[in-house]
UniProtKB/TrEMBL annotation:
<dbReference type="Pfam" id="PF01753">
    <property type="entry name" value="zf-MYND"/>
</dbReference>
<keyword id="KW-0862">Zinc</keyword>
<keyword id="KW-0863">Zinc-finger</keyword>
<feature type="domain" description="MYND-type">
    <location>
        <begin position="18"/>
        <end position="55"/>
    </location>
</feature>
<dbReference type="GO" id="GO:0008270">
    <property type="term" value="F:zinc ion binding"/>
</dbReference>
<dbReference type="InterPro" id="IPR011990">
    <property type="entry name" value="TPR-like_helical_dom_sf"/>
</dbReference>
<dbReference type="InterPro" id="IPR053248">
    <property type="entry name" value="Zinc_finger_MYND_domain"/>
</dbReference>
<dbReference type="InterPro" id="IPR002893">
    <property type="entry name" value="Znf_MYND"/>
</dbReference>
<protein>
    <submittedName>
        <fullName>Zinc finger MYND domain-containing protein 12</fullName>
    </submittedName>
</protein>
<keyword id="KW-0479">Metal-binding</keyword>
Length: 364
């Protein structure tokens, strides 16, 4: 049994607070001995989310350092702790993003909370550097259905942005994107579309109109229109998103055709999960609409072409993520859809990807 999750009594007279809820704590991590919990459930939740990755770092930061007579030594210790805190922020942010991308919102919360606490320790309670952690907490809260908590996080974020008028467009686009998600969850679709429109504006200014970052804003707008049964607008936006992703992935695949880039990891876990969710959602929507949307009954080649494009995109995505079995499966689906189209420009590139996937599988 892993002794790191066994409860231990706190020393008498020592007041400790739970790492997750800040209530009085009665058990501690037996490895670092500087992290405390109110119950085993919170201890296990933190361990599953982030604690295992930062246990040793927290021990270094939270354990009192021996007294140093010389200022230079004290300054060196402070700089080391600052570097450790910054590393924890980076690590916990990345971990929370990964959990959110996979739809595991409960697991994301402890990581996002740790990121926020460390950012407050470095920058203070009102600094704009806290925005990423607040946005992650808001997004996880929306996923869990805790809308009042999400509203509280977003109100705090808006206040910080107002106090820092020089905030970058990357921050503004993320703020509006998360606000759009909140209003979508509240079924206030007019407000959601307004925020997603602002998201697209700031994202396009920062990353360009043909960026996959901007495309996600269009994808979220499309989902709002879908909830309003505006199928034509939904499909138009989905087509734009699909085309953007296909172009982006095709360029990356072209790079991997060079031997020095073959096998290179182009997406982390969070990016892969997010891209897969969008592309799979659109492919499923195409398959569901084929028998219900009038346009598809009169122009079935359009639906087949879109399904070929999306399946090819998913095949390229998994190839770039080095999952060659999934790449081959989606490549074969793309080939099937492509063969049913009268005029398909994808056939050659699909077959090339299938061959490359088969080659990698044989060598694995």
């Amino acid at each position: 049994m892993d002794t790191s999750i066994l409860p231990l009594a706190n020393p008498k007279g020592t007041k400790k607070l739970c790492e997750l809820c800040q209530k009085p704590a009665y058990i501690q991590c037996t490895k670092c001995r500087v992290t405390f919990y109110c119950n085993v459930t919170h201890q296990q939740a933190d361990l599953n989310s982030i604690h295992e990755k930062v246990c040793e770092l927290l021990m270094s930061i939270r354990t009192p350092a021996p007294f140093c007579c010389f200022k230079a030594d004290r300054d060196f210790q402070d700089m080391q702790n600052l570097n450790r805190l910054e590393h924890i922020i980076e690590l916990s942010n990345a971990t929370a993003k990964s959990w959110v991308s996979e739809g595991k919102y409960s697991e994301a919360m402890p990581a996002a909370q740790l990121s926020l606490r460390c950012a407050i320790e470095i920058y203070g309670p009102d600094a704009v550097e806290l925005v990423p952690a607040y946005l992650l907490l808001a997004e996880a809260s929306i996923g869990l259905g805790s809308l009042p908590q999400a509203e509280s996080c977003l109100s705090q974020t808006e206040w910080m942005v107002m106090k820092n008028p020089g905030c970058g467009r990357s921050v503004l686009h993320l703020l509006h994107r998360t606000l759009g998600r909140l209003y979508t969850a509240k079924e206030d679709y007019s407000s959601a579309l307004l925020h997603f429109a602002n998201d697209v504006f700031y994202a396009s200014e920062e990353f360009g109109l043909d960026s996959v970052v901007t495309a996600e804003g269009y994808f979220l707008m499309a989902n709002v229109f879908m909830k309003q049964d505006q199928t034509d607008i939904t499909n138009s936006l989905h087509a734009e998103v699909a085309s953007t992703w296909h172009t982006h992935l095709s360029k990356l695949i072209e790079c991997t055709s060079q031997k020095e880039h073959d096998g290179e990891q182009h997406f982390d876990v969070a990016q892969c999960a997010k891209a897969n969710r969008m592309l799979s959602w659109m492919l499923e929507a195409q398959q569901q609409d084929v028998n219900t949307h009038p346009a598809y009954r009169t122009a079935p080649s359009y639906s087949l072409g879109q399904r070929a494009l999306l399946s090819h995109s998913l095949a390229m995505l998994w190839f770039l993520c080095n999952d060659h079995k999934k790449a081959l499966d989606f490549g074969k689906k793309a080939a099937e859809f492509s063969q049913q189209c009268e005029h398909s420009s994808l056939t050659e590139s699909i077959q090339s990807l299938i061959q490359r996937s088969e080659t990698h599988l044989k060598s694995e």
